[in-house]
Fold each of these.
Amino acid sequence: MKINSPQFNLMHKACMKASKILIRDFGEIEKLQVSEKSPGDFVTASDKRVEKVLMKELEKSEYSFLTEESGSIDGKYKDKRWIIDPIDGTFNFLNGLPHFAISLAYEENGEIISGIIYDPIKDEMFGAHKGSGAYLNNTRMRVSNKSEFRNSCLVTGGPKSTSKIKEAILDEYKKVSLKTNSHIRKSGSAALDLAYVAAGRYDGYWQREINYWDIAAGIILIKESGGFINPIKEKDFMGKKIDIVATNSKIHEDLTNLL
Ligand code: IPD
Ligand code: CA
Ligand code: CA
């Protein structure tokens, strides 16, 4: 990957180590002990193992952490944070569907500076660093060029079974569907959805009630590949259950107007 920053290099190293465990566990999926955190939100033993390996490598920096499994942890440096989702796409993973990723981001003073989303099964690493561009493995990525909304390839996710606005989310899905030729996908991994918009595979993505760790790395990928990303109503991306939209920029207005 043609990005060279100390933080990016450390994330890369941590990711390559952790992905070995992830690949091994995916091969042994039946043997995994699964515990249920809340309906629709499973955490596997593998999730915890992967996060531990990532944190062990990254904690050498003495930065703080925000992770899905461990929450907020203060390091020596409070203004520098690693944001981790060890497995994004857990439900796919549990079902033996090869579409999930490790998502790692580096945040400084509340701004995402670097991000990596790594799909270990396809060996696709999506990476970006502020001012250095976005890459898929060693190739520079750009968002798609499509401007015709009706023909755009969109992706979304949710609602979770625990959502209190399930009906509204499904109604919105219907509303958007009727304005397109129904090229709407649901992949089960928000991190990969954003990475794919950055790579020009999808033209747009939106989702209600998403968490910061699901999208942190994706934010810099979208920005550095020429796309637009913003919260729909919140003032920033931080926090839990926020609503976001990300596109190739050309269909941004059309999609935003429907949400
Ligand atoms: C989930 C995935 C999914 C999205 C959910 C997320 P997890 O993350 O990104 O695509 O629809 O909202 O919670 O639980 O697999 O890490
Ligand atoms: Ca996630
Ligand atoms: Ca996860």
Amino acid sequence: MDDKVILTVATTGAWPSKEDTPYVPLQPEEIAEEIFACYQAGASVAHVHVRDDDNKASMKYEKFEQVVKLVRDRCDIVLNLTTSGGLGFSDEERMKPFIELKPEMASYDCGSMNWAHNSVFINSPSFLEKLGPAMRENGVKPEIEVFDAGMIYNALYYLKKGILDSPPHFQFVLGAPGGMAATVENLVFLKSLIPQEATWSALGIGRGHLPILYTALALGGHIRVGMEDNIYYSKGVLAKSNVEFVERSKRIVAEIGKKLATPDETRNILGLRKSN
Ligand code: ZN
């Protein structure tokens, strides 16, 4: 499996609006269509966010339910639901989608941080201590999202306490204002801190997208692309679909002599239960 690379697509996220880019999918039908197109192009994991009827960041359960159903009707891509969805949602709102819908993965944001120089992204100890066991009970693998090095030490603490299970899976999120910058040096450093048996993936937000993608591949990691992280295909040119990012990644992965993992290979690499 050493030659297989897991490609996650994050089509929507909490922030891009139709004013930022008319191509971002925001409502369930368009999100599911986009995920299916990305699956056909080679993505094996879909990291899912939803929006409310006004296209604002949301943890509305009914929207997740619709997306999950529409995607599962179309394909067996691994589903990874956000447990953040934006800022300020209650613990219950954040946990309900994975408890009810039982995706194979969900995000686990492993600490709090100042967000975009204007707000606070809260992931309190009490929430994280609930979230780990709730994911375990529902057969959901945590994707431990790391925005700075301290979040890795939080994860190591929760692994020791039995809040998280080993082997863990990390997603390094670099370039968020308030977190670590999207640099090659930062990714090399973060990778050096995680346990040997861990699996990991990385993404760079905005301009850092490609340098982090190349570095993750060079270091033997997995990758994530999509409009949650980056709406531009190249300088000043909006991507017209998330598929463009998937297709480019597939070409880059092929150039280094590797292949994109299928959903079942991804389940195998990450030790996921099969839910579809
Ligand atoms: Zn997300």
